[in-house]
Amino acid sequence: MKGTLAPGEDVALKILKVAKAEPPIKRYRPDKTSREVTFAPEEHLQSERQEDERLKARSEPGC
Fold it and tell me: pLDDT by residue (tens digit) across 14-40?
């Protein structure tokens, strides 16, 4: 049976014989494409404000 698959179509596979299992493929991506959002937007803004305040206090005279 040959043909094309439509999106959402189910496919079943049956493994007949395996002499030796292959190790999983390790895939590495550059940081630019694999970065995850670690903070919610509000948390990010709060962190930036805290950093700005810290730098401002550090640069003001008398510190």
Answer: 888 888 888 877 766 666 666 666 778
